[in-house]
Write a structure and sequence with these properties.
single chain; alpha+beta; ten-stranded mixed beta sheet; 52% helix; 10% strand; binds adenosine-5'-triphosphate; nucleus; ATP-binding
């Protein structure tokens, strides 16, 4: 440690970083005092240089103790205190001016000169401090002074006259503080010197053998120095340095025997020795690198000096010793302490006190920094959240990709199956997988999703086969290119085709193919009810319709009675009081629906419609249509309705209605066929829809008008088709209009006349009302289509005529029915469709229109099939329908009934697959009406037609949707698939 000048100390103020340094240890030998000289004691110790001293009498005492001791500084007996201060204490003492806490100890045995040395050091320090202050006017210094003593382990304020011991408090920042210790701000150096005098006076001093003025306490004088640059006083960035320097004059260790102490002195000596022992322990511990427990708290001395010993204070220890041989043991102990202290390190640092303004500003900056860090942390946290969310979404995307891949595979598999089934030709020769599949399971089992998918696949292929005839028209096209759109189109066709198996599934067994057949079948009645309710709004009550039951074989009573048909509404029940069993609404409303819809509504909405609409059709065509539709009118036995249609107003309204029916029928035929064709047209080849429509119309017309012209192989030629188109066009001959497009009065008159002659002019009474005969005649007008009426001279029909007309219709009805049945067989019409129609036909005149439509449809279809233009592979669907019926038979027939049925149908009860045998015999013999009726009865029961009267009208396409629709554009259009 070099000398410390005032200037250098000020310059160190900037060096605020704490650094480790050793305690500065020096030894001062005092000269032999008078008593020692009187005892002729010699000095055992000799300072050989400034840092080394030796024990001179080692050989004489034959001691093994060290002879030489080296310390930071060795002061001999003639060394003045000022030199001791300058070389051993000044730097440490003046550190306080640089803001570094410092402490200067005086340690040694009693009467060794501690007080003598420390008093001189303190005075020198005060002088130097004030001298420094005087030389550094640019800074403002504030010096405070406090003094205490530890006497018998009691802390006492030396600046206070109150001898009450002070308490020691532990402060987290400042360490141990002395409560209520007076801290006097010094005015100047003299003031300090006065206080030092007070302290000296206040200190406990006692006379001992060794020292007449022995200090009996540890004294700590504390000088606090605060300084700040005058230039920045009051400024926001001003700062101050503050530190304290402790001048510690320890009580001297002593031996009771040497000091001859007793009583108070002995007690004092004990406390002194105990506290010095603790101090020695602390030093020893600290000298060993602070390992283990440092017993600061074992005494108040070490507790107070904790910050100085091994803390952040710069420390100097001046060990004083007597060179007299009589004190050699104590001298060695002092040297041992000094040696330990020499090993202790401290961390001196500058204590900077920031002004309040500067502190506020500094705190504000710190706050801003922390806020910024917080924002960064928030941003980081947010980014972490975003990363987490992104990761989660990536996981979802990956999961969805996986699902898409699986679904794609399923779709490809389904498509592959559909293609395979298509390539098999559609014939139900190989029941696999359908047949085998269902053989393994009961219909009562619920379908799994995969099974449902299989059903859909097979049904899809079936639809594809139903529409595959269009592919025959795609000459020169790659079939692969047709597959996808073809299937899609087939699906559309399938979904809108009431004759497809899917219709049966959706309409009668629920829309979900996953549901079991049985469960769905049980819901059939409910579905019927729902559909029935929908159609009720367009029904007209027919109270006196005859029953259809006479056309059916008897069914088990239980079946007839089982379940209340939804058709039997309360209103209907009230009508059931008639002698004849009333035909259910589900059947009776059908003809009326066709009559009313859309024309009836149209008529109702346009009561005053002019016959001009009718005139759009050529008279020739009118004749034809009127002849057919006139059969509708008498079916309405309701008198009011009959009067409405047969009354004087019939000529225009009825003509319009009938013509509208025909027009809508044809238009819907065209539209429906166009729907089937549209998808293909888009992908196959450009082709006018009208051209295709013409072809359809051609076929329909050819069926009813002239024998087909076919090639050798039975197919039609292109010319035939072209001609048919022309024929159909002339069927609806363009209107004859005036130059401006309006009809002439003559045209109108002629049209009215044509219609009037078609239906024989009504004969009315003078008041215009119809006679009973008129009404009777009108009711039988439908029969005029089949043979000219025979009238009496006055134009009225005879009873025989009426009887004959009824007989003629009955004959014609039977003929048409047989023809239809054979066509069904030829066209592979679904059995449920046949059954319903057969139940519907009962010989009423109202059947005529349906039979006409059905005949036209079947004829067209048959001719189309036979022409080779199309290839409808409906037999496969038919077989599958039979398979469905087979499954349904499990529920609908008891074991006993089934056995009876098998026997009736000639199926051995010992044979296998009896249900299969039976269902594949149904509707097989188109020429055997008994067989047909039996088949219809069985199918009706299996499907859920409770009896013939309860056949659902939906079968005729009148209610495919539960959604309310415009009747005019709905009923006929959706009935058309049956006609194609
Ligand atoms: N270096 C010295 N030169 C001349 N006289 C000295 C020196 N050191 C001490 N003395 C004298 O020795 C006597 C004892 O000194 P001092 O009281 O300072 O001892 P001490 O260590 O403080 O004793 P105690 O522990 O009992 O208080 C005093 O009379 C003092 O004047």
């Amino acid at each position: 440690m070099g000398s410390i000048s005032g200037d250098s100390a000020a310059g160190e103020c900037d060096d605020s970083n704490a650094h480790e340094e050793k305690i500065f240890v020096s030894v001062r030998l005092r000269p032999l005092n008078e008593k020692e000289l009187l005892r002729n004691e010699i000095s055992d110790w000799e300072c050989i240089n400034t840092t080394t001293m030796i024990f001179k009498n080692s050989l004489q005492e034959r001691t093994m103790l060290p002879t030489a001791y080296a310390f930071d500084r060795i002061f001999g007996c003639d060394c003045p205190t000022k030199q001791v201060y300058d070389e051993a204490a000044k730097k440490v003492a003046l550190s306080v001016l640089s803001g570094i806490n410092s402490s200067i100890f005086a340690y040694g045995q009693t009467s060794s000169g501690k007080t003598y040395t420390m008093s001189g050091v303190t005075e020198c320090a005060v002088d130097d401090i004030y001298d420094y202050i005087d030389k550094h006017r640019e800074r403002e210094f504030v010096l405070k002074f406090s003094a205490m003593e530890i006497y018998n382990e009691s802390v006492r304020d030396l600046l206070s006259t109150d001898s009450t011991p002070l308490r020691l408090l532990d402060d987290p920042e400042r360490g141990t503080i002395i409560e209520k210790l007076a801290e006097v701000t010094l005015r100047d150096s003299d003031h300090l010197r006065e206080l030092l005098t007070v302290c000296e006076a206040q200190r406990q001093i006692g006379e001992t053998t060794l020292n007449e003025m022995s200090s009996r306490s540890h004294q700590i004088l504390r000088l606090i120095v605060e300084s700040s640059a005058r230039e920045y006083l009051g400024a926001a960035n001003s700062s101050a340095l503050t530190a304290s320097v402790n001048f510690i004059d320890l009580a001297g260790s002593e031996c009771a025997s040497q000091t001859s102490s007793a009583g108070t002195r002995l007690k004092e000596g004990c406390h002194i020795n105990r506290s010095l022992l603790t101090l020695g322990t602390v030093i020893r511990k600290l000298s060993k690198g602070r390992n283990g427990h440092v017993p600061y708290r074992d005494s108040k001395l070490t507790r107070i000096l904790q910050n100085c010993l091994g803390g952040n204070a710069r420390t100097a220890v001046i060990c004083t010793m007597s060179p007299a041989h009589s004190h050699v043991e104590k001298s060695r102990n002092t040297l041992l302490f000094a040696s330990c202290a020499k090993q202790v390190s401290t961390n001196a640092r500058v204590n900077v006190v920031v002004s309040e303004k500067a502190l506020v500003k500094q705190l504000q900056k710190e706050l801003a920094r922390l806020e910024n860090e917080l924002r960064n942390l928030s941003s980081l946290a947010a980014s972490c959240d975003s990363a987490s969310a992104l990761k989660e979404k990536e996981y979802l995307i990956e999961k969805m990709d996986k699902e898409i891949r699986e679904l794609t595979q399923q779709r490809d598999l389904a498509r592959s199956r559909a293609e395979d089934l298509l390539h098999t030709g559609g014939e139900y020769q190989n029941p696999k997988p359908w047949g085998d599949y269902h053989e393994k399971r009961s219909w009562t089992d619920e379908y799994s999703a995969s099974e449902a998918s299989e059903i859909i696949d097979i049904t899809r292929s079936d639809v594809a086969s139903r529409t595959s005839h269009f592919s025959d028209r795609c000459e020169g096209l790659n079939s692969n290119k047709l597959e996808e759109p073809f299937l899609e189109n087939s699906e559309m066709q399938f979904l809108s085709d009431d004759t497809s198996p899917r219709l049966y599934i959706d309409k009668y067994f629920g829309p979900d193919p996953c549901k079991g057949w049985e469960k769905i079948a049980q819901e059939t009645d409910k579905n019927f009810e729902d559909n029935f309710k929908e159609v009720q709004c367009i029904e007209i009550d027919f109270a006196n319709r005859s029953t259809i039951a006479d056309t059916l074989p008897p069914t088990p009573k239980g079946d007839q009675d089982s379940g209340q048909s939804p058709c039997s509404s309360d209103e209907e029940t009230s009508d059931a009081g008639s002698a004849n069993v009333p035909r259910s609404k589900s059947c009776t409303d059908l003809p009326m629906t066709m009559q009313k819809s859309p024309s009836s509504e149209f008529t109702e909405e346009n009561e005053s419609i002019s016959p001009y609409e009718f005139e759009k059709v050529s008279p020739e065509r009118q004749d034809d249509n009127q002849g057919k539709l006139s059969k509708i009118e008498p079916t309405a036995n309701d008198e009011d309705l009959s009067r409405k249609y047969l009354g004087s107003s019939i000529t225009t309204d009825l003509m319009n209605e009938k013509e509208e029916n025909i027009k809508i029928l044809v238009e819907d035929c065209i539209a429906n066929q166009q729907t089937c064709e549209t998808g293909l047209d888009e992908v196959i080849k450009p082709k006018s829809q009208m051209q295709f429509v013409d072809n359809l119309d051609l076929e329909a017309e050819k069926t009813s008008k002239e024998p087909e012209k076919t090639t050798d192989d039975g197919s039609k030629t292109g010319q035939d088709i072209q001609k048919s188109t022309s024929d159909w066009s002339t069927e609806f001959e363009p209107e004859k209009t005036t130059d401006d497009g309006s009809k002439t009065d003559q045209d109108i008159q002629k049209s009215s006349s044509d219609w009037s002659t078609e239906f024989e002019p009504e004969k009315t009474t003078d008041d215009g009302s119809k006679t009973d005969q008129d009404i009777q005649k009108s009711s039988s007008d439908w029969s005029t289509e089949f043979e000219p009426e025979k009238t009496t001279d006055d134009g009225s029909k005879t009873d025989q005529d009426i009887q004959k007309s009824a007989s003629d219709w009955s004959t014609e009805f039977e003929r048409q029915k047989r023809e239809i049945i054979e066509l069904w067989d030829a066209c592979c019409t679904p059995l449920v469709h046949r059954t319903y129609f057969l139940l519907l036909f009962k010989g009423d005149p109202s059947d005529a229109v349906y039979m006409e439509v059905e005949l036209r449809r079947l004829s067209f279809l048959k001719n189309t099939l036979s022409s080779g233009q199309v290839s409808v592979k409906s037999s496969r669907a038919l077989n599958r329908e039979r398979e469905m019926l087979i499954k349904q038979m499990i529920k609908k027939y008891s074991k006993k009934d089934k056995e009876a049925l098998f026997q009736k149908w000639g199926i051995s009860l010992k044979s296998k697959n009896r249900r299969h045998q039976l269902c594949h015999r149904l509707w097989k013999d188109a020429k055997n009406m008994d067989h047909i009726n039996e088949s219809a009865a069985i199918v009706a029961k299996l499907v859920g037609f409770k009896d013939g009267n309860h056949a659902p009208k939906e079968m005729f396409g009148l209610s495919f949707s539960l959604k309310p629709m415009n009747l005019k554009s709905y009923s006929w259009r959706h009935s058309l698939p049956l006609m194609i």
